[in-house]
Amino acid sequence: MEKEQRWNSLRLRGLRQRWIFNSILPILALLVLVVTLFSAGVSNYYYGTMQKGLETRAQALASSFNEYFMDNGFSSYYQKAVQSAESFEDKNRIELQFIGSSGRIQVSTSGLTAGTSPGTDDILQALEGNRMTPTPYQGRDMETGEEILAVSCPLTVNGRVVGVMRLVTSLRLVDRQVMLAVLAIFLVALLCMLMVVFSNLLFINNVVEPVAVVTEAAKRISAGSYGTRIENKYSDELGELVDNINDMSLKISQNEKMKSEFISSVSHELRTPLTAINGWGETILEDDLLTDDPEQLRRGIRVIVNESRRLSTMVEELLDFSKMEDGRFTLQIEDVDLQAELEDAIFTYQELFRQDGIALEYHPGDGDLPLIRGDSERLKQVFCNVLDNAAKHGGAGRRISASIDQEGSAQVVKIRDYGPGIPEEELPFVKQKFYKGTSRARGSGIGLAVCDEIVGLHGGVFTIGNADGGGAVVTIKLPVRP
């Protein structure tokens, strides 16, 4: 038992893991993609905006310098470079450098870099070409090791490049802004992920726990605890599932109870006629006095015949029931005179009923009735079974009436007794297999179920109800087929 509980726990844990994995993994992948794209977008936006602003400013400064200060020779150029560096407004954020044709920094707003040679690609490209288009550089400064963004523009005299004006800014603040933005979107994504995980855990627990309860109840039912019920605390599909399992358990319990009663009833029903047959047979064989009393001998033989007929009927019902259960119950369809079959059954039972003090009345319809398509033997079996059932359960009324008539496109047979009738609460179940209700009459409890099956296979309707004035009435409606 402990091993089984541990296995169930592992299985439920595996269900949780599969649920979490299958539901969380796609969302996690989506969030990673969103964070990655957002980070790339933020980075491109910040760096791109900064580079574009620096390029625009460098190009404007270089154009002004070339236009106003580069016509008076190198001494004027150097003097103006020093003045520009000293008067540069954004020297706290941006470093302005003037680089000679050798690549060495000649003038800078930062005295620390003067005289050094950065040797970056933007300087080399500006010295090699005569294009006023700024050349950007983003990378590590060779001197300070700091990440920088630099833009270089050539300075020309008479069309010859004599130097480079360069704007340099640190990326430390931009990197910080990018990191803060990425961290913010990461925290938002993490919060979303935690909310998804938490909601999924709540959901899977709300699903797994009821499933575990239902599974345990189903195991108890399969182990034989029929009638076990589960407390229904749910109003959704799980509640419907619990109701269905409870209904199944109740019906299985009822069926098992009816089967047990059926076995007990059939055993009793078989034992009683066999005892009578065996007793009268031994009496006839051993009692020589019966040969001098023909009436007593005839009585014993009549008992043997009646009990043998009852046994044959019961065996036929059991065989028919077995065929119904495994799908071998078939019909031999032919043209049938339904009225003739009913009258034949009435003739068979009329004398038997008279001997028991029951009057069997017959009311034929007006005129000849057309033939129908059906199995004559099975239909006669239905009539005989219903008549016998009326005598057993309604014989206290000492009267049974049978009639047949045409109603529209169907022929209707009605067989009524004048006994106590059927309790209203038992009417919905009287055609169920093995059901006998409160009746103490002898029988297997499957005769009416067989009748209902036969009539249904003919496309007809078999109904049982209470008649006005007392007693039960059976109505058999069969369609007239051309």
Write the layout of secondary structure elements.
Blueprint: H1 2-69, H2 74-87, E1 94-100, E2 105-108, H3 121-128, E3 135-140, E4 147-157, E5 160-170, H4 172-222, H5 237-286, H6 294-326, E6 334-336, H7 338-355, E7 359-363, E8 372-374, H8 376-394, E9 399-407, E10 410-417, H9 447-457, E11 461-466, E12 472-479
Parallel strand pairs: 7-9
Antiparallel strand pairs: 1-2, 1-5, 3-4, 4-5, 6-8, 9-10, 10-12, 11-12
Secondary structure class reads alpha+beta
Q: Which regions have little confidence, pLDDT < 50, spanning 5+ residues?
A: none
Gyration radius (Cα, Å) is 52 Å
Principal-axes shape call:
rod-shaped
Q: Mean pLDDT, rounded to whole units?
A: 80
Order of helices and strands: HHEEHEEEHHHEHEEHEEHEE
